[in-house]
Amino acid sequence: MFPIIVFHNVNSSKSCTEFVRIAVGMGYKTLIITNAQGTAAQRGLPSAQKLALKHGVNFMALSDITDVRELFQPDEIVVVAPPPYGKENISKEFMDSLEGKRWVAVFGGGDPGLTRKDLEKGDRVAQVPAGDIGSVGMLTLGLALLTGKFVFSRDN
Q1: What is the CATH number of the domain that holds 44?
Q2: I need a surface site. Which of 27, 59, 74, 135 has the fewest CB within 10 A?
């Protein structure tokens, strides 16, 4: 079941399906959308659930990040935010610190992304070392780094 990937504060139906497609492509098996609004709630969640079922992954929609903590009781919730909000880069050392833990990664699903209140709901705030690449870009790079198969290097 772990790691669990959360896409929070989503308002686009397309973002819901992109979230599932990207997360499944990176090999994650438990996906949650929290605080879906507007077309994301009306059309996006059913489409995302259908896509998740086709790929045999766990999918659910919850009201808030606090529901994820209450229901799954993870050892650690990592909120992934763009610089300068993140406190540490997602690196090999960062991933090593999660080894053996039941962890959740939370990504912002829309613009402006995560609020200060959302950042405070995590145990750690990590960052993808990139500029303003939007929510789907942040999700894609962040999930790639969290797999441990890809690493950020200033030498490349």
Answers
A1: 3.40.1280.10
A2: 27
